[in-house]
Amino acid sequence: MLKQRVITASILFVLFLAALFGLPTLGWQVLVLAVVWQSAVEWSRLAGLNGRAATVYWLLTLAMMAGMVMLDYGLAQQQQTLLHLVWYVLAVLLWVFVVPAWLIAGWRPRNAWLMGVVGWIVLLPTGLAMLDLRASSPWLLLFVMTVVMMADISAYFAGKRFGKNKLAPAISPGKTWEGVIGAMIGVTVYVVAVYWASGFYKQYPMLPGVVVAGWWWVALAVIGDLFESAVKRQAGVKDSGALLPGHGGLLDRIDALTSTLPFAAIVLVLQRLE
Q1: What DSSP assignment string belongs to the chain?
Q2: 53 and which of 49, 261, 273, 274 could share a cystine (Cβ 3.0–4.6 Å)?
């Protein structure tokens, strides 16, 4: 299983780098639309939407994402920024307030379309963040995503080697506090290494703040991972799909990104408004 996961992850990462640095703006937008579409297909199953209802859901999701992409061509810069800000604020409210309460209380919503609306707040800001961060700098998007990847890798191996104390056994029995600590250590090393190697410290001597931001990133990634696990448990499935060998569905691969990318994007958007 580990070998298959590594092979799939390696291929995906190479393809991602090629797309990130090689695709024109339109090509990247089409790729993001495809990611949101596939994620919506998988979310519709987790939400309990079947048959025609599932088709309607992912078509609406795709139309909403495509509509926002097209609006960006017709809106003034400030109007575009404000529209994106609304979605990012919804995402921040979801991840900071709603999801933690959801996980603590063990909520199990039975209304499929209510879960569908939650899916929009999860998926659409993630798609917008992929567009905004890449438009600002492909390197910025790469860094934000690789911090999450480093947290995931570190948590996996630390959990396998030292994991004894379960993080949330009722939601995801495989996750441990030792894995979280490993993720924080791994991210700290990675962030500090990038901070020094990039020369960022010469202009912005703010290492403690960068490290704390990395820890915050780990916390957000864990919340995103646990939330998808809770939704899958409610749906009675192990994986969100079978698209990626060794990983499951696309949502299984990007769950931690849905809870982190909008936070990076909202900081970027707020800087534009200053």
Answers
A1: -HHHHHHHHHHHHHHHHHHHHHS-HHHHHHHHHHHHHHHHHHHHHHHT--HHHHHHHHHHHHHHHHHHHHHHHHS-HHHHHHHHHHHHHHHHHIIIIIHHHHHHHT-----HHHHHHHHHHHHHHHHHHHHHHHHH-HHHHHHHHHHHHHHHHHHHHHHHHH--SEEETTTEEEEEHHHHHHHHHHHHHHHHHHHHHTTHHHH---HHHHHHHHHHHHHHHHHHHHHHHHHHHHHT-SSS-SSBTTTBSHHHHHHHHHTTHHHHHHHHHHHHH-
A2: 49
The residues pairing with 166 across neighbouring beta strands, listed in sequence order, are: 176
Over residues 85-117, the pLDDT tens digits come to 999 999 999 999 999 999 999 999 989 999 999
State the pairing for strand pair 166-168/172-176.
antiparallel
Higher pLDDT, 196 or 261: 261
Give CA–CA dist 116/100, Å, rounded.
Answer: 19
Query: Where along the chain do its domains lie?
Result: 2-273
Distance CA 50, CA 56 (A): 10
Length of the chain: 274
Distance CA 153, CA 184 (A): 11
Cα 146 → chain centroid = 11
Residue type, 20: L
pLDDT computed for residue 202 by the predictor = 65
Tens of pLDDT, residue by residue over 201-226, are: 666 667 788 888 899 999 999 999 99
